[in-house]
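Discrete fold record:
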Amino acid sequence: RRHWDSMAVLVLHYSIAIFLFIKFGWLTWLLSFSLPFFLSHMLGAYLFYAQHNFPGVSFRKNLDWNYALAALESSSFMDLNPFMQWVTANIGFHHIHHLNAKIPFYRLPETMAAIPELQQAKVTTLMPSDIVACLRLKVWDAEANKMIGFAEMNEVRMA
């Protein structure tokens, strides 16, 4: 009862999908409904991944852990254009969200502009070179204190 609107949206989406499939066929359904749905989810998954696994990310052991440092060093600021900021509800300001999840998404840009310390965040982008750099990182190397890829992990293992 409390979240009836979520059920209404699900029913609406399924109704549209079924209508497109029956009325216009599987190819129209695929190109107009499923493909955009898949691509948006793929982008969303990458945004989440890249804001927690990026070159320069820092994690600390329990005794050295600090809430504010964890928020600022273990999550990034993803520099997005205004359209992508709007589409993603300012998810690029992820480091601020980790610092204080109660700040509404529409206040994140002004929060960053008002507090100089928040402007020193580690930055990622949707540039192909940044995407490749983020996707190469797979494992945390505690001795080197950085994220590494599988190739580097094998080198560390051999040494």
